[in-house]
Design brief:
By secondary structure, the chain is of the alpha+beta class. The chain has a single domain (2-126), classed as 2-Layer Sandwich (Muramoyl-pentapeptide Carboxypeptidase, domain 2). The chain has helices spanning 16-38, 64-69, 73-102; strands at residues 2-3, 44-50, 53-59, 106-114, 119-126. The model is unreliable at 4-15 (pLDDT under 50).
Length: 133
């Protein structure tokens, strides 16, 4: 499931409809990125945009074997080490795709995974003076 932060019937005159469409575009791009570069994608992706920051929360990406491995502390450490190493090489690609999609330069991209919860988080920061509006 890919979604923005608000249901369509909850939009108002303050521009939320356009923002929600951008949130959905980012979530779709993240899902395609995962599938293309990791061979799988998260079951649930949600994007929240606030001022010059967007937070992506992706859940349900671990395989059954990885979920079993995540049941121990040592397994979670191994999963996190592998994921961090994979994303280290893919981070420039993800940053570039986000910049192309949004047409706005990024200031930074921070990624982290929580194997116990089967989720990963991305914090996308825009350069000063830019916003999602």
């Amino acid at each position: 499931m890919v979604e923005g932060s608000m249901a369509p019937e909850m939009t108002s005159e303050n521009g939320r409809c356009g923002e929600r469409a951008q949130e959905a575009s980012i979530a779709d791009m993240i899902q395609r990125f995962e599938q293309e570069y990791m061979g799988r994608s998260s079951k649930y992706i949600r994007v929240y945009m606030v001022h010059d920051i967007a937070v992506v929360r992706a859940r349900g990406m671990l395989s059954p074997a990885e979920r079993q491995l995540a049941s121990t502390h040592e397994g979670r450490v191994l999963i996190k080490q592998l994921w961090v190493k994979e994303m280290e090489g893919l981070k420039p690609v993800l940053s570039y795709r986000l910049e192309c999609l949004m047409g706005i330069p990024l200031s930074g991209l921070t990624l982290d995974i929580d194997p116990r919860e089967d989720e990963w988080i991305a914090v996308i920061r825009l350069r000063p003076g830019n916003s999602w509006d």
